[in-house]
Amino acid sequence: MGGRRIRPCESYYSKRVESVAAAAGEMQPIADRVLRRGYALRPIDLGRFEAELEILHRLSTAIFAENFLYEPISLDDFIAMYAPLRSFLDADLVRIAMSPDGEPVGFLFSVVDYHEAVKAMRGKRNWLAKLRFLARRSRADAVNLKSLGVLPGHRRTGRALP
Q: Which helix (H) or strand (E) holds 157?
């Protein structure tokens, strides 16, 4: 082989949190400070899903603009990519951060991990495969945090208080 080495250009960190309660407890002091400053988290409104996707697109474009390898996509492409997830979303797992002025300034996008339910479909899409998915869907015991971001001017807001 030619002797040319392939090197990674970036890496990431992934972690499984076994105790959500313990992790939430560690974050509570920061959350309390942010709330005292007038920020709020609201669940995504699935009844206004396309309008909510427009907000998430606008935030994503600004939040991730400086990230390595980030390429913005059009609103139409963003909606086409996320619209199929609507029926899988739990509104409590997708939160939009609101500033004290009531403007969206960040978001948390999480989804239930249906890996085992999808695996049970065995690569098929027929009615039997869908039944296998539905039978295992309620057994999902993990959540994947897909994206999290805050507009630059609002970052570290919870740590700014004495």
A: none
